[in-house]
């Protein structure tokens, strides 16, 4: 007899439907699996067999053939275990086809028949929208994110079979823990003492979606500042939340309690991270990389200069297009990669400090600068020097604004920006800037002067205008009554934007090199 | 030509393995250069005073080196580069070095020996100088050259190069550069132009033959020659432990007066000079201090130059004062003066545009008026 059970596997951040066909027929007792399973998938034979027997069901002593369709696509992992087990039970007539009709199954089996968590349930469930889905209890919240109806949960193969034939109800859906509804505590901007410029830069970055580079010697608080950026971003909208959740599920990462990402994710890959881990990939299964995991959130790259050159190069396309396309011989996938990049670096290998305190030799410094000034440097709208705060500021009782206050301004500024073209200021094109960020006369002449002195390139000019637009928006958002005409960018906005483009020091004090 | 052969022999000899300044000095004290080469190569009997040196390892190394370094070949190379060589036996050999406790055995040179005939002041300092330090070194170089004083320095980056640049900005190119590598390749490479300018109108000196790499140990040796050639040594900026302090020590051993430019106590690049002043070095705050120490007329140097920059007022004056004390970042201006970030940024930008400040890596430094 033959059975056909729907299930799915993950490719990139999308689920792709897989039909598990099981045939139990005459012939020598045996088990064959076809349809490009990988090792973990092929080993399902032993798990499924033990699980069936432990669940006090019968393993048919006949010729069993399992086919995973479509056969051209590689299947990996143990997520198809449950579907195979159900298929075997149906094909050996221990379950009626009517009992399983219209249902899709996901889950890894233990030898005792227990159901284990599998990665990527959310995108897989989304790919099988028309079916009722049966998932392990541990995947319940993930499944609910994507399922149209209520997913069915169970803790073991035996329970699944009993529930299918109606001998017992499906497991209770886990009630959301009241504590889970609370967003996890994000680091608050209130903890940062001093650093007025960097604080403002964070606010501008959050409001306009401008990538931010923090330059400063060790111990100046770059990491602490960067970690607070995610807390300044507005809560995720429904679509963004779903997208971020899908990516995290596809990567097999734990979702926040409640299933959905309500807040912007914060990713901080270590500087030894490989290219593949950064942009996504892998030979068997295309997994989302850090750029995708940071989608709709913040990616923080500490010690930017220490990252492998290839990993930095890999960021180009995501930063430019907001998606990353990974292709391997067997498969290709397009994954989202829209994130706010915040990076931290020392000014030079020795850590730098005030003029006259660096002790690097020319070669080391040039190499360091070259790496920084490569493809990435151009992408940072904001480059801010962070200095160790003075003792008085550190010990001073005066706490700064808390994240919530700043976030309100950020949200107001974002609303202003969205009212123009429906996008963040960082994404405005030069043409749009001409319309939406007209410069006041004195501001224009200051920028002209900067360009004539070759301290600003054409691209840098647009960058300054974008940042200045955001600064103006924030100011308008902070004003009690919106009396000011918010359309013009004034000299003050431009000067502030210019001051947040610190040059990286070149070889001699005389030739400071501008990296944009 | 006899002169060429001599230069060739010296260049070949000075580059032998295991050759040291002392060994070369002993060798050249008892043999003419061409003969010294033959002795070192083992082709001629050595002078009895040289003989104990020519044993074992040294002897073997020198014989092999002699096989590799062909004097006529080196003569051609030196002639091509315009490099000459003098020993203590030559008339051109600087008199001050003749009586030095540790004189160089041979000096390779390019340029004009006449540069050494005037009063000579050494200007040295750190390679990682602040822009203010470099500006002051350049001003000293310029004013001393104008007064007809020769400036001796090391052509390194930072203070040394700035002083030389100052000298070359005048029409009297009174610059002596003593370097730690061969005269064939400028080091540091970024100073190539400066190096050639000094080699053309001033005087370039090196203890080492062309082709020698600037290894670390050669710099302290080079420093002693700078000290020995100077009547007065001015240290512009130096770390608490720096090469310029070894130059100062060499100068003191030779009875050369050491002067130092004071700096902020927060400036790391000035910690060495401040230490020198504490130890008794005369402070230098303007070129007249040096002229006075040299016993030259300095009265006409009084009075300041015209400064075309608009005088800062109000907030600008406060911000400039703060940056004068020490280099500042935007953050420190905001914190110390209680300004808003925008106001501070605008003030700094105005001061930078009018030429009072210079920004580098986010730090604002005063631009000196000298």
Characterise this structure:
- The complex is a heterodimer of chains A (516) and B (370).
- Chain A has 516 residues and is an alpha/beta fold.
- Chain A folds into two domains: 2-164, Ribosomal Protein S5, domain 2 (2-Layer Sandwich), CATH 3.30.230; 189-418, Rossmann fold, CATH 3.40.50.
- Helices cover 37% and strands 17% of the residues of chain A.
- In chain A, helix 5 crosses helix 11 (238-250) and helix 21 (458-478) crosses helix 22.
- By secondary structure, chain B is of the alpha/beta class.
- Chain B folds into three domains: 2-81; 113-301, Rossmann fold (3-Layer(aba) Sandwich), CATH 3.40.50.450; 314-366, Winged helix-like DNA-binding domain superfamily/Winged helix DNA-binding domain (Arc Repressor Mutant, subunit A, Orthogonal Bundle), CATH 1.10.10.
- The A-B interface holds A 194-198, 200, 215, 347, 352-359, 362, 384-387, 389-390, 393, 446, 449, 491-492, 495-496, 498-499, 502-505, 507-510, 512 and B 126, 128-131, 133-134, 157-158, 188, 190, 237, 266-270, 326-327, 329-332, 334-335, 341-342, 345-346, 348-349, 353, 358-363, 365.
Backbone shape of chain A: elongated
CATH topological fold name of the largest domain in chain A: Rossmann fold
Strand order of the largest sheet of chain B: 1-2-6-5-4-3-7-8-9
Summarize model confidence as the mean pLDDT of chain A: 85
Unreliable runs of chain A:
506-516
The CA-CA distance between the termini of chain B, in Å, is 49 Å
For this structure, what is the CATH homologous superfamily of the largest domain in chain A?
A: P-loop containing nucleotide triphosphate hydrolases
Structural class of chain A, by secondary structure, is alpha/beta
* Number of H- or I-type helical stretches of chain B: 16
């Amino acid at each position: 007899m033959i059975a056909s059970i729907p299930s799915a596997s993950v490719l990139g951040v999308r689920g792709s439907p897989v039909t598990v066909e099981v045939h139990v027929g005459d012939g020598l007792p045996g088990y064959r699996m076809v349809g490009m399973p990988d090792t973990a998938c092929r080993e399902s034979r032993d798990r499924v067999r033990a699980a069936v027997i432990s669940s006090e069901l019968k393993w048919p002593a006949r010729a069993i053939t399992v086919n995973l369709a479509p056969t051209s696509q590689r299947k990996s992992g143990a997520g198809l275990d449950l579907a195979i087990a159900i298929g075997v039970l149906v094909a050996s007539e221990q379950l009626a086809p009517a009992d399983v009709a219209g249902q899709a199954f996901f889950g890894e089996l233990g030898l005792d028949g227990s159901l284990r968590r599998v990665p990527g349930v959310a995108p897989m469930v989304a790919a099988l929208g028309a079916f009722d889905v049966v998932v392990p209890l541990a995947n319940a919240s993930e499944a609910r994110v994507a399922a149209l109806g209520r997913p069915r949960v169970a803790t073991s193969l035996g329970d699944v079979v009993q529930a299918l034939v109606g001998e017992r109800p499906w497991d209770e859906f886990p009630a959301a823990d009241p504590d889970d509804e609370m967003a996890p505590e994000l680091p608050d901007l209130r903890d940062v003492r001093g650093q007025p410029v960097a604080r403002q830069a964070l606010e501008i970055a959050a409001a306009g979606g401008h990538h931010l580079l923090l330059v400063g010697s060790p111990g100046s608080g770059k990491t602490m500042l960067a970690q607070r950026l995610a807390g300044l971003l507005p809560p995720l909208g429904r679509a963004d939340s779903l997208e971020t959740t899908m990516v995290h599920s596809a990567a097999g990462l734990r979702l926040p309690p409640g299933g959905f990402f309500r807040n912007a994710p914060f990713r901080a890959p270590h500087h030894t991270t490989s290219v593949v881990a950064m942009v996504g990939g892998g030979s068997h299964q295309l997994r989302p990389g850090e750029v995708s995991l940071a989608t709709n959130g913040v990616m923080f790259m500490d010690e930017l200069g220490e990252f492998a050159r290839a990993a930095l190069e890999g960021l180009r396309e995501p930063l430019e297009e907001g998606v990353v396309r990974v292709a391997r011989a067997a498969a290709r996938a397009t994954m989202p990669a829209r994130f706010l990049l915040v990076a931290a670096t020392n000014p030079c290998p020795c850590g730098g400090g005030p003029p006259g305190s660096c002790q690097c030799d020319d070669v080391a410094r040039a190499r360091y600068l070259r790496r920084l000034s490569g493809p990435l440097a151009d992408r940072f709208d904001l480059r801010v020097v962070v200095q160790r705060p003075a003792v008085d500021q550190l010990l001073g009782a005066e706490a700064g604004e808390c994240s919530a206050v700043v976030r309100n301004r950020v949200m107001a500024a974002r609303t202003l920006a969205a009212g123009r073209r429906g996008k963040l200021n960082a994404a405005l094109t030069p043409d749009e800037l001409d319309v939406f960020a007209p410069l006041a006369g004195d501001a224009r002449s200051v920028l002209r002067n900067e360009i004539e002195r070759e301290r600003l390139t054409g691209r840098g000019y647009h960058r300054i205008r974008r940042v200045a637009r955001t600064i103006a928006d924030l100011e308008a958002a902070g004003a009690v009554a919106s009396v000011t005409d918010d359309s013009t960018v004034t000299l003050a906005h431009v000067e502030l934007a210019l001051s947040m483009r610190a040059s990286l020091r070149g070889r001699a004090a005389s030739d400071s090199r501008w990296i944009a | 030509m006899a002169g060429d052969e001599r230069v060739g022999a010296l260049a070949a000899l000075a580059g032998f393995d295991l050759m040291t300044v002392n060994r070369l000095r002993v060798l050249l004290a008892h043999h003419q250069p061409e003969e010294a080469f033959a002795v070192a190569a083992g082709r001629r009997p050595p002078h009895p005073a040289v003989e104990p040196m020519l044993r074992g390892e040294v002897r073997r190394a020198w014989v092999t080196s002699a096989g590799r370094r062909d004097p006529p070949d080196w003569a051609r190379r030196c002639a091509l580069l315009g490099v000459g060589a003098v020993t203590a036996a030559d008339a051109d050999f600087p008199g001050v070095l003749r009586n030095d406790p540790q004189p160089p055995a041979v000096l390779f040179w390019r340029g004009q020996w006449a540069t050494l005939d005037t009063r000579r002041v050494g200007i040295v300092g750190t390679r990682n100088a602040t822009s203010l330090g470099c500006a002051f070194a350049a001003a000293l170089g310029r004013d001393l050259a104008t007064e007809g004083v020769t400036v001796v320095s090391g052509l390194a980056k930072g203070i040394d190069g700035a002083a030389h640049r100052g000298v070359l900005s005048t029409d009297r190119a009174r610059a002596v550069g003593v370097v730690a590598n061969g005269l064939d390749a400028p080091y540091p490479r970024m100073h190539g132009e400066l190096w050639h300018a000094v080699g053309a109108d001033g005087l370039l000196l090196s203890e080492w033959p062309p082709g020698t790499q600037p290894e670390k140990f050669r710099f302290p040796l080079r420093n002693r020659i700078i000290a020995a050639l100077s009547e007065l040594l001015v240290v512009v900026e130096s770390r608490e432990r720096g090469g310029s302090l070894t130059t100062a020590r060499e100068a003191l051993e030779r009875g050369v007066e050491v002067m130092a430019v004071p700096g902020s106590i927060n400036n790391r690049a000035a910690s060495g000079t401040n230490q020198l002043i504490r130890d008794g070095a005369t402070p230098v705050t303007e070129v007249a201090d040096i002229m006075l120490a040299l016993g030259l007329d300095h009265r006409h140097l009084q009075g300041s130059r015209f400064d075309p920059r608009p005088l800062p007022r109000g907030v600008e004056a406060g911000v400039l004062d703060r940056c004068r004390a020490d280099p500042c970042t935007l953050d420190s201006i905001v914190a110390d003066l209680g300004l808003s970030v925008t106001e501070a940024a605008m003030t700094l930008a105005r001061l930078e545009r009018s030429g009072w400040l210079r920004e580098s890596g986010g730090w604002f430094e005063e631009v000196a008026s000298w």
